[in-house]
Amino acid sequence: MITKEQVLHALSHVDDPDLKKDLVTLNMIKNVEITPSKIRFDVVLTTPACPLKGHIEHACRNAIALFVDKNIALDINMTSHVAGPKGDQLPNIKNIILVASGKGGVGKSTVAANLALALHAKGAKIGLIDADIYGPSVPIMFGLEGARPKASKTSDGKTKIEPITKYGIKLLSIGFFTDPNQPVPWRGPMVSTAVKQLFNDAEWGELDYLIVDLPPGTGDVHITVAQGFPISGAVVVTTPQNVALSDAVRGIGMFLMDSINIPLLGVVENMAYFTPAELPDHNYYIFGKDGGKRLAERFNAPFLGEIPLVKSISDSGDNGLPVMMDEDNPARNAFLEIAGKVAQQLSIEQAKAKVVS
Fold first, then answer.
1. Buried b (16+ CB within 10 A) or exposed e, 168-196
2. 309-344: pLDDT as tens digits
3. Which listed residue, 52, 56, 127, 355, has the most CB atoms within 10 A of its CB?
4. Helix (H) or strand (E) holding 196
5. Does pTM surpass 0.85?
6. Please, what is the angle between helix 220-228 and helix 188-200, to 10°?
């Protein structure tokens, strides 16, 4: 009869490629069950968006075949448990990820929206805060213009905002509370108060990831969020040309300041190239090439991926149906790949933090 010890010994030869330790040491093997004809166990990954899920499962099968029995049936349940920083503030939200850019017009909100939807598509519980005080985009991008969140009373008598759920993710935007036809001259204290309410006064429930779409630049909103909440990491969006890159450098520099010190999860290059529909094998780098890669290399950060300049991406946002909701659109795969890399890098950063502490 095969023993649990034999199974664990075999799986101790399988490493998590990102965390650089074996699955048994990482306590990622759970619920081992053994019968004369079958071995069953769970592999608990650090994120449902793990891009190496298939690789790890294949390695487990090889290890059992090599060290235990090559003919035994295997039932491997690849599951996940998303970890996050411990704390009293927003205890039900495991990770807060900021999406930022040095300048406007680089497609930051499009990336934030589709990143949130891509993580949800991979099985994570997701919220999205549109904290772009000066140009909120979520109401348009999700077809929620004119929508107003409801309020509810909690058991302790507090009033909470109920985020609006669309396409499976929970949404809040400054745009839900303002008249899109009227300018709002925000002063510094007003900005900070309004943004804090989106975090603290909302009934978010349990979330694996809360994505925050920040305004362009490095202003009051950035400082309020970065210093006021337990941020897990930041994603910076740029386009390839030097003007966008120079502004992105300042944005990254803000996150790396000692007083803020937020891990840079990586760089996304939007509008990387143009591919005409009639010439699908031709890429035209109309804004320059590899600017995002060079930026990532400069800060020793991951390059998360390129998003092509495709009219359907902007059209889908304008029509309230983000491109992630179109399973036939090839741009969807770019966002799914980026989501996997973001979750992967976040797990690596959390492993580093454990070692340091």
1. ebbbbbbbbebeeeeeeebeeeebbebbe
2. 888 888 888 889 999 998 888 889 999 999 999 999
3. 127
4. helix 188-200
5. yes
6. 40
